[in-house]
Write a structure and sequence with these properties.
Elements (H helix, E strand, L loop, with lengths): L1 H13 L8 E2 L5 E4 L3 H20 L9 E6 L8 E4 L4 E5 L1 H7 L11 H17 L11 H14 L3 H7 L16 H6 L1 H13 L4 H9 L11
Parallel strand pairs: 2-3, 3-5
Antiparallel strand pairs: 1-2, 4-5
Length: 223
């Protein structure tokens, strides 16, 4: 069965055009600029998965055109960036991620292509929630909370389980632990806390919907 899947993937890859021009993902308004057909295909597969994932968990559908550019490098250990108001995403290529990913990262156990696709979902989430209500100058915690939740939800159940491991099993994560200081100083710690907090909700995807519509605020006014 695995050999059949690999053969099918190779045949589909060979049917894709060379990447001299942007590729538009089938059935979407998403265009991809990539050096290889394989990388473009990974983006389109991740985007298709994100459509179903968003619909099942309270994240708005993206209806406007978006562009994703695959590049060799961003700032240190940053692999994706959504440019607010520009409908434009930059993501480091899978080969670039393989060279730059830290061995002690919480994502180090993931195959590179899987990790790359999860980053695509993360950045698409930022695009999807750009117009979500925010009563403050910035709702960074809410934005990153939703992006990390969707990123990890895009993985297999066994992979998701690795993010749920705790030194103190059963301890509930408080909202105060989800703050900008942790996000900026230790983004991996922030991501794990986000996932634990999400999975500890009685209705996790319902909670996502409440963040999206502004019923639940994870951010505070900063003076």
């Amino acid at each position: 069965m695995r050999a059949l899947k690999v053969t099918t993937a190779v045949m589909m890859l060979l049917s894709w055009p060379a990447q001299s021009e942007p590729v538009t993902c089938e059935g979407s308004n998403l265009s991809v600029n990539a050096a290889t057909a394989w990388d473009a295909r990974l983006v389109c597969e991740a985007a298709a998965g994100a459509v179903a994932l968003f619909a099942s968990c309270g994240v708005p559908e993206i209806t406007r055109p978006l562009r994703i550019d695959l590049i060799d490098d961003l700032k240190a250990h940053c692999f994706g960036r959504y440019h607010c108001g520009e409908d434009w995403i930059e993501i480091v290529t899978p080969s670039g991620i393989a060279e730059q990913r830290l061995p002690d990262s919480i994502y180090s156990f993931l195959p590179i292509d899987t990790y790359f696709q999860s980053i695509v979902v993360h950045e698409l989430t930022h695009a999807a929630i750009e117009d979500a209500p925010c009563p403050f100058d910035s709702c960074l915690v809410a934005n990153e909370y939703l992006a990390y939740v969707m990123q990890i939800l895009s993985l297999s159940p066994s992979q998701q389980g690795r993010f749920g491991e705790q030194d103190d099993p059963g301890r509930r994560i408080s909202r105060d632990e989800l703050n900008p200081a942790i996000y900026f100083m230790a983004p991996d710690v922030f991501a794990r806390k986000v996932w634990l907090h999400f999975t500890q909700r009685d209705d996790p995807c319902g909670f996502v919907g409440q963040i999206v519509d502004g019923t639940v605020l994870l951010d505070y006014e900063r003076f």
